[in-house]
């Protein structure tokens, strides 16, 4: 490497972004991305938060459709981030959220960061999925 330790690409262990540490522009873009990600995953808590369970390393907070806008906004921010990381279409639930009963469960660490997210919908009717012909069941 001829003394150039920051040559090539590196991946941030915290946010996962791939960038070139030797490039000032890349470092700046990484810093912006990192700050934006950390801000979206920050959850300092609210006066009337609905704590479902508490653990030594954090708590699970439930956010319902009738909760205050700041709680719904935080749940939406986290869901959008998770959707983009998983490759889901942006806004897939948008518009339908007011008519359906979505519940958001956020695992918030002791350091006030969101580490987990579950979005659940009550289902009143379901259809059995039939196996494909010729497929063998798993052992």
UniProtKB/TrEMBL annotation:
This is ESCO2 acetyltransferase. It comes from Orthonyx spaldingii. The keyword Transferase applies. The gene is Esco2. GO terms for molecular function: protein-lysine-acetyltransferase activity. One of its GO terms (biological process) is mitotic sister chromatid cohesion. Keywords: Transferase. One of its GO terms (cellular component) is chromatin. Residues 1-36 form the N-acetyltransferase ESCO zinc-finger domain.
